[in-house]
Specification:
The complex is a heterodimer of chains A (about 100) and B (about 260). By secondary structure, chain A is mainly α. Chain A has helices at about 1-25, 35-45, 55-70, 75-95. Chain A has one domain (about 1-95). The chains are: A mainly alpha (about 100), B alpha+beta (about 260).
């Protein structure tokens, strides 16, 4: 339980830092003209164990932060990211077999 | 392996939706709270990002500036060459002589086999460009600079008319008389064999005569200065001030006709 809370907190802080890095620092570099937070969430979901929840936590934090700083209604980014993450996990569990 | 979402997960999702619905109602307060709390961090990252960008821009602009300066230098070179060739064309030099345009690459001191030659220059044209020994070297204004002394594949050494080994048959302006211009070294030339009983004016032009066989006639050496008539000497002593300026010497013409003159 404590391990899960610690992981949760760690991911919260990590994504908070990454989000501001993405918003305030990386726009100055032409090589980072894409949303690398979303890319990171997708990659984590693709490459982690499909039964693990880490990818979902990441999607949640990335979504919440996007919602806070976006002009759209609260929850839109979170729901989209969580849905995509669940979809990835579903596809990986159901249709992908890694020998 | 089948995917069975647990009730726990569904419950969490349901709670999440409710929480978001509530948050959406107070979204402006929530957003302003997070904006205020993260303002300092955002500012810090923004400034460091800007500094990085500025550094990058400075680097880029410095590089661009260097490239432009180099292009400017090339253009300046082309302009000088153009001006030099125009001057030559105005005088009709190209009709009178067969010319090879060369660039001075070193001046005054050149060491070969331990011997230091003074009053000589190196030019960037050599045997491969058709340069041969004893070819006269002139400026666009028909000013004599010297002659080719040594020829290498891609460069040559030109001894100036002020070189100690240089002796040139000259004609002095307005007198119709011939004399000898002897190189004294250090850009000094003396006038010799000019009869004492003849009138010689300060500032008279000295130019080459065809007598020597090396130089074509009519090339300007310089002006006669410091005329001295010494009692026990048969000839007038004077200096010839070279018409070219060694410091400004940049492009020169090598006259190919010297080969014909020598033949």
């Amino acid at each position: 339980m404590i391990k899960s809370i610690l992981k949760f907190l760690f991911l919260a802080i990590l994504f908070y830092a990454l989000y501001f890095l993405q918003m305030s620092f990386l726009p100055f570099f032409s090589a980072f003209q894409f949303n690398f937070i979303v890319l990171l969430v997708l990659l984590i979901n693709i490459f982690e164990d499909p039964k693990s929840n880490t990818g979902l936590y990441c999607a949640f934090f990335a979504g919440v932060l996007s919602d806070i700083f976006s002009p759209y209604f609260f929850g839109l980014a979170t729901i989209i990211l969580l849905s995509v993450s669940i979809l990835i996990k579903f596809i990986l569990l159901r249709y992908v077999r890694i020998p | 392996m089948t995917y069975n979402p647990t009730k726990k997960r569904l419950l969490a999702l349901f709670i999440l939706l409710i929480v978001f619905s509530v948050l959406a109602l107070f979204s402006s307060q929530v957003k302003s709270f997070f904006y205020n709390k993260s303002l300092n961090l955002q500012m810090m990252l923004w400034q460091s990002g800007q500094a990085q960008k500025i550094d990058e821009e400075v680097k880029k602009l410095t590089e661009e500036n260097q490239n432009l300066l180099s292009r400017l230098a090339d253009l300046e070179e082309a302009r000088k060459e153009n001006e030099f060739l125009r001057r030559a064309l105005d005088l009709g030099l190209e009709k009178e002589f067969d010319l090879i345009l060369a660039q001075a690459t070193a001046k005054n001191v050149f060491t070969l086999k331990g011997i230091t030659f003074e009053d000589s220059i190196l030019i960037d044209k050599g045997k491969n460009d058709g340069i041969r020994k004893d070819f006269p070297v002139i400026l666009a204004d028909k000013i004599l600079v010297g002659k080719v002394a040594e020829v290498y594949d891609s460069f040559s050494r030109v001894v100036l008319i002020s070189n100690k080994d240089s002796m040139i048959d000259i004609e002095v302006q307005d007198t119709g008389l011939f004399a000898l211009a002897k190189g004294e070294g250090n850009l000094k030339i003396s006038l010799d064999l000019f009869p004492k009983d003849q009138e010689l004016n300060d500032g008279a032009l000295a130019y080459t005569s065809a007598l020597g066989g090396v130089y074509p006639s009519g090339l300007v050496l310089g002006q006669v200065r410091n005329i001295k008539k010494i009692d026990n000497e048969a000839f007038i002593k004077a200096d010839i001030e070279p018409a070219f300026n060694l410091v400004q010497l940049d492009r020169v013409f090598v006259v190919k006709t010297a080969e014909i003159v020598n033949d």
